[in-house]
Amino acid sequence: MSYSEETSKKIKRSLIKFKPIINEIAQSIVDKEINDIVQCKKISSPEDISKILKPYITELSLLTESKNNINNNDVGFTELAEITFKEEILRTLIVNLRRELGDLYIEMTHKEKNDKMFKQSNTIKVSIFKHLKEILFH
To answer: Sign of the C-alpha dihedral, residues 42, 48, 49, 54?
Structure first.
């Protein structure tokens, strides 16, 4: 890293004050993303979750790479703080989105299983009634 460790620590300490704001920003993005997914997509496998997270993870890695390539003479404290702030928002966003998508995947999986069991249960009921009819009326 080109910038000093002291500067980095100072920025991270300052960032703690903004953690509620970061969480709020990330959660609003997560809520919007989840609403879009519920309306138009179906999560049927963990690979679907990876596809949804991929752009955010790519953006975070590019941001981290650019932060690591910064030269102290080229960037000021404000610019470095801004990059660190964006980085923290992306990290929080990825963690929250992964958790929400995992919950949504589990919910959808359970719903599918319940639907299958309900259909099987109805099929079994129909066949039982059919057999009872045959026994009683024939």
So the answer is: negative
